[in-house]
């Protein structure tokens, strides 16, 4: 059999494997490459359509950035080198939005236009499924996707190889470079070529880096050579942390230290600051600004951290009252406070507002609290678009919008179908034009606007938008939230959290956010100390995604078995009828924290 025939046979087999996967039939790992199968699974979890392409679009992507300035000469040189070859050279930003596309072949150019692989469109994996750009960005490493390995069937005639571009100083992913050609022309040299191109862009970025960044990097490296302790360095766009810091500090502690260090360095003077951390530790920071060109303090600086003692923030017998920034809301993290301030400013200006964020971050709670603070005696109507299928829903919305007084919040507008979206947009336009006795303020909530392209007409009515941070991005607020929730469940401090349980709570990524934390506490007794063993299995994991019901059951069984065997993985596997290899893989997959023996 010729190599071409073998390739065709392999392609047919892969196409059948992909079809089996999409129809929920079993797929053996050896039938498809591991990274591709993992990407297929993510694509299915995100409900990416396999039979058509729906992409978000950015009308005018920013082309005046350090990335584009550094990359374009490299990409033009490569395009000239490939002149006449059916290969397209593509640059994207860190979210997968295509910034530029250089193609010499007219047929390939037309085909890429047909699948929206063009400037302004996002080829993130959660938008279009498995592909060279999105899969490289999602995995943080080079990825090649050939033919039927693509999740979307409209991409099966293509082959692509993508590589993330990392900033040479911060290490942060700033974009991706991708080479795309016809599937029949796919060659392993494509992968080597795109890696070389990414390296050239990284080198160009280093050359373009500001003198301030280079000075900060030199200060940081000198500090690391002189100290075996915790060393941080940060500026407006850059964060560096030595291995000792990553090993010793929990993510929540890291976030608090970086936030406090940024404030201390802003003054441009060396200073020492003591900080109480979410895990109960107390840290002393010695902050030394970098003396780079430009305004004093603008270059950031280097921070030495010393851990002093264990505090009692979460495990205190009589916890300090949580400080409420708005009625029934607590939290003092910078990201959370900024969101609160932005919503209050929108309300004061009478600006209709979109509140975005993951489920459970507190979108409705924040909108309610702002209304209560700014208009305590006013009426607030809360409507849920999840009920839009009911015949009386839209008339109820119209009545609320045209009422002589009161404000309106409409939840979950991303659940509306196009017909309902159009009707709601019309009702909002009519309400805005109506002669009302009092000013009308309307806020809507949604999880992710890119998942609902039919919202464009509706969102035109809302000039303001605030994205609320997930709890993992302001984990420093967890102690205050804990105190607040425990106070709601048991007055006079009769319910507390042990230090061991507190550490587990801080280490969790909380994919269900603040609502998930509240549900965890609601499950427990109303007096005494909550111990680590009292926490549900979800708190023994650091998974960044919500699990399916079947996955959650499996995770819970593994955690409970590990608790019963005091962390002995072999005995836990035996009790569950699993092999040790399987339980090791599941522990890693679910991010399970092994209980201490």
Describe this structure in words.
This protein is 42% helix and 17% strand. It has 21 helices and 19 strands. The chain has helices spanning 3-22, 34-45, 66-81, 106-114, 125-128, 132-139, 189-208, 211-226, 243-248, 251-266, 334-349, 363-374, 393-402, 418-433, 456-459, 478-489, 499-507, 513-522, 549-564, 569-576, 580-590, and strands at 87-93, 98-103, 143-146, 158-166, 173-182, 230-234, 239-241, 271-276, 281-289, 301-310, 324-326, 329-330, 353-356, 380-384, 407-411, 442-446, 464-467, 495-497, 528-530. β1 (87-93) and β2 form a beta hairpin. α11 (334-349) packs across α12, α13 packs parallel to α14 (418-433) and α20 crosses α21. The N and C termini lie far apart (58 Å).
Question: Which residues sit in consecutive blocks of at least 5 with pLDDT less than 50?
Answer: 1-6, 293-297, 310-322
Shape: globular
Cα distance spanning the termini: 58 Å
What is the tally of helical segments?
Answer: 21
**How helix-rich are the residues, as a percent range?**
40-55%
Largest sheet: 5 strands, antiparallel
- What would the average pLDDT be, to the nearest integer? 83
Radius of gyration: 27 Å
Strand line-up across the major sheet: 2-1-5-4-3
Structural class: alpha/beta
Q: Beta fraction of the residues?
A: 15-25%
Count the strands?
19
């Amino acid at each position: 059999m010729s190599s071409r025939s073998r390739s065709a046979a392999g392609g047919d087999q892969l196409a059948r494997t992909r079809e089996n996967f999409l129809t929920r039939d079993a797929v053996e790992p050896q039938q498809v490459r591991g990274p591709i199968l993992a990407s297929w699974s993510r694509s299915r979890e995100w409900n990416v359509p396999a039979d058509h392409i729906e992409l978000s679009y950015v009308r005018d992507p920013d082309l005046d950035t350090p990335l584009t300035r550094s990359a374009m000469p490299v990409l033009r040189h490569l395009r000239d080198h490939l002149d006449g070859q059916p290969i397209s050279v593509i640059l994207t930003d860190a979210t997968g939005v295509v910034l530029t596309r250089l193609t010499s072949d007219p047929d390939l150019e037309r085909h890429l236009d047909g699948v929206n692989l063009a400037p302004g469109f996002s080829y993130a994996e959660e938008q279009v499924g498995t592909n060279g750009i999105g899969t490289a960005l999602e995995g943080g490493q080079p990825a090649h996707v050939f033919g039927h390995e693509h999740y979307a069937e409209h991409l099966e005639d293509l082959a692509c190889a993508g590589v993330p571009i990392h900033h040479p100083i911060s290490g942060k992913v700033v974009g991706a470079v991708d080479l795309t050609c016809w599937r029949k022309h796919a060659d392993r040299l494509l992968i080597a070529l795109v890696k070389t191109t990414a390296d050239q862009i990284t080198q160009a970025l280093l050359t373009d880096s500001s003198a301030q960044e280079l000075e900060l990097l030199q200060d940081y490296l000198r500090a690391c050579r002189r100290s075996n302790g915790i060393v941080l360095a940060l500026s407006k766009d850059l964060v560096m942390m030595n291995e000792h810091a990553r090993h010793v500090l929990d993510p929540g502690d890291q976030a608090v230290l970086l936030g406090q260090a940024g404030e201390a360095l802003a003054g441009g003077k060396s200073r020492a600051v003591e900080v109480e951390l979410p895990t109960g530790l107390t840290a002393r920071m010695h902050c030394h600004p970098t003396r780079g060109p430009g305004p004093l303090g603008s270059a950031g600086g280097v921070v030495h951290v010393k851990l002093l003692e264990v505090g009692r923030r979460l495990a205190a017998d009589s916890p300090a009252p949580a400080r409420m920034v708005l009625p029934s809301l607590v939290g003092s993290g910078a990201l959370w406070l900024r969101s609160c301030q932005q919503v209050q400013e929108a309300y004061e200006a009478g600006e209709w507002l979109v509140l975005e964020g993951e489920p459970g971050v507190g979108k409705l709670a924040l909108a309610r609290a702002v209304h209560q603070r700014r208009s305590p005696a006013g009426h607030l109507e809360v409507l849920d678009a999840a009920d839009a299928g009911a015949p009386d829903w839209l008339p109820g919305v119209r009545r609320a919008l045209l009422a002589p007084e009161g404000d309106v919040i409409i939840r979950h507008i991303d659940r509306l179908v196009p017909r309902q979206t159009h009707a709601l947009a019309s009702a909002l336009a009519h309400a805005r034009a109506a002669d009302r006795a009092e000013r009308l303020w309307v806020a809507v909530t949604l999880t992710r606007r890119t998942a609902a392209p039919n919202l464009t007409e509706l969102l035109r009515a809302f000039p303001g938008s605030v994205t609320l941070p997930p709890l993992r991005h302001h984990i420093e607020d967890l102690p205050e939230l804990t105190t607040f929730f425990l106070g709601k469940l048991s007055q006079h401090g009769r319910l507390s959290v042990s230090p061991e349980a507190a550490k587990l709570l801080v280490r969790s990524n909380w994919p269900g956010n603040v609502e998930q934390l509240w549900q965890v506490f609601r499950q427990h007794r109303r007096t005494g100390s909550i111990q680590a063993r009292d926490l549900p299995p979800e708190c023994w994991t650091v998974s960044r995604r919500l699990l399916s019901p079947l996955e959650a059951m499996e995770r819970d069984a593994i955690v409970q078995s590990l608790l019963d065997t005091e962390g002995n993985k072999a005995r836990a596997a035996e009790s569950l009828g699993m092999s040790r290899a399987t339980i090791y893989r599941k522990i890693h997959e679910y991010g399970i924290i092994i209980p201490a023996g």
